[in-house]
Amino acid sequence: MLFRTAFTLASPPGSRAGLSILIFHRVLPKPDPLFPSEVDAQRFDTLMGWMRDWFNVLPLAEAVDRLQQGCLPARAAAITFDDGYADNHDVALPILQRHGLSATFFIAVGFLDGGRMFNDTIIETVRCCRQPILDLTLLGLGRHDLQSLEAKRQAIPALLNQIKYQPLAQRRETVNALADIANVTLPDNLMMTRQQVKALHEAGMGIGAHTVHHPILALLERREAEREIADSREYLQTLLGEPGTLFAYPNGQPETDYRREHVEIVQRLGFRAAVSTAWGVARGNSDVFQLPRFTPWQRPRWRFGLGLAQNYMTSSDHPGYCSN
């Protein structure tokens, strides 16, 4: 009751309402020793119970419409997922349905049906590698101790930080070479199939575009960036039989990962709204093509709720945010 009251005060119904948009990526069937903080089924079930009790959870498309019209309910929220992992369908969907909640899933369509994102190639290479020291000096990535679980936990972010902002083609070549050097066999079932995306849609969930190959748009030539955005929308329209209206910028940090020109592309292609990963709560004066998103990861109920409450005080036009 305390949090419901606090959220109502921070976000009353009508024109002064705020829209909290939560972002998730994976919901694992069981805890992963390599990533103990990753959301698993039990944790997600708990979080969705809190969201059901505290918020009026709306489909993102409806929430955006009502935000613009000034008629959001008190404590309005929306739930989103990025990338298109198979566990979104297999694990998250039944939990959402059990709680009577909706979510919107942003799909990087180039990885459907057996693809794998670059970060997962890195993660699974480190996980599966049996070499005590992974020597990547030929790739300019140094040597990495993999002799313990903690060492692997340190190696993964070190490699991700070095590779993430490489040009798209170079990034692909780098992670493939990394896997070859590690001599590992990698999984090909991490991402959804087309049928699973259709099943989410048929279950009443929202589906949005998230480019084809999940590039850092700010690193691409304008024409290539536009093709990544447009092709993902066209793919989903063909798959689902209706035009996509929502978009999520890969990685999503304003100026670092996308720029004003990409916002203009999204607008011109006919999307109705887009989401970033800048923190904050969307208000009536927010740019609907750069809506903020946030999820607190603290485990105790009170700290999770406090994180959501504090997010109401984060302005969506904070320094670094691309405002109109």
Describe the structure.
The chain is of the alpha/beta class and 324 residues long. It has helices spanning 2-10, 41-54, 60-69, 86-99, 118-128, 149-163, 168-182, 194-202, 222-240, 260-268, 301-311; strands at residues 19-24, 56-57, 76-83, 104-107, 133-135, 143-145, 206-209, 246-248, 273-275. The strands form three sheets. Strands 1, 2, 3, 4 and 7 form a five-stranded parallel sheet that branches. Strands 5-6 form a two-stranded antiparallel ribbon. Strands 8-9 form a two-stranded parallel ribbon. The two termini are 37 Å apart. 42% of the residues are buried.
Task: Give a quick rundown of the structure.
This protein is of the alpha/beta class and 324 residues long. The chain has 2 domains: 14-113 and 190-311, TIM Barrel (Alpha-Beta Barrel), CATH 3.20.20; 118-182, no CATH class.
